[in-house]
């Protein structure tokens, strides 16, 4: 709220400053400006914690551009926020894919275990990024648009890993369509408690949780 109040007054002077503070990128460097907008929005999101509290005017001021210039790269604030989150989801998905590839190719359960362990390690090693991904309050959208959320990258990867387990002779307990979500929800809940509870931060506890989670969700 304080950030919003700081951005509320002096619209005319602020707009003029936005228009003159930044040297225009040479022709063909629009991608560079897009990256600058993403970095600025990401830093502000870490501070305010929600899409509603994020001010596009504040983003523009950070970059040194006029606020309308943001709309040349992002259709609306939701599009901008999802693009910020997508960078981190893509990185996490890549780390999980590497963990999958490092496990024995003929052991789909171990490959899934490696992915879940990699997820936990990412969250522990990158607490600010992880909070941004999983704790940023986002504006509700319709179901059609929701399908494009960057978290879908993570969920599709988990679904493929579960399919490989099924093809390897494992049965998924519960509703198959909900299984990737259940894996994600369980991991996030355990990580949230692990991070805030007053216990020694031993990642072995997370490894044991992954093992127990797989025992609960999969059977021969």
From TrEMBL:
Residues 31-92 form the HTH tetR-type domain. Residues 1-29 are annotated as: Disordered. The keyword GTP-binding does not apply. Pfam families: TetR_C_33 (PF13305), TetR_N (PF00440). Residues 55-74 bind DNA. The keyword Thylakoid does not apply. Keywords: DNA-binding, Transcription, Transcription regulation. PANTHER family: HTH-TYPE TRANSCRIPTIONAL REGULATOR BETI, HTH-TYPE TRANSCRIPTIONAL REGULATOR RUTR. This is TetR/AcrR family transcriptional regulator. The lineage of its organism: Bacteria, Bacillati, Actinomycetota, Actinomycetes, Kitasatosporales.
């Amino acid at each position: 709220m304080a950030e919003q109040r700081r951005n509320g007054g002096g619209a005319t002077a602020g707009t003029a400053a936005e228009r003159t503070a930044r040297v225009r990128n040479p022709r063909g460097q629009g991608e560079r400006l897009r990256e600058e907008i993403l970095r600025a929005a990401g830093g502000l999101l870490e501070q305010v914690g929600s899409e509603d509290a994020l001010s596009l005017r504040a983003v523009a001021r950070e970059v040194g551009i006029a606020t309308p210039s943001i709309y040349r790269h992002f259709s609306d604030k939701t599009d901008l926020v999802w693009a910020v989150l997508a960078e981190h989801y893509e990185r996490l998905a890549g780390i999980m894919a590497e963990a999958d590839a490092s496990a024995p190719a003929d052991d789909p359960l171990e490959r899934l275990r490696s992915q879940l362990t990699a997820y936990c390690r990412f969250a522990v090693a990158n607490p600010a990024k992880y909070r941004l991904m999983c704790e940023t309050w986002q504006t509700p959208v319709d179901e059609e648009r929701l399908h494009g959320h960057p978290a879908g990258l993570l969920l599709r990867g988990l679904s493929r890993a579960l399919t490989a387990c099924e093809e390897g002779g494992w049965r998924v307990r519960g509703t198959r369509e909900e299984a990737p979500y259940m894996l994600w929800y369980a991991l996030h809940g355990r990580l949230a408690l692990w991070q805030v509870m007053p216990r020694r931060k031993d990642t072995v506890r997370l490894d044991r949780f992954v093992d127990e989670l797989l025992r609960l969700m999969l059977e021969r």
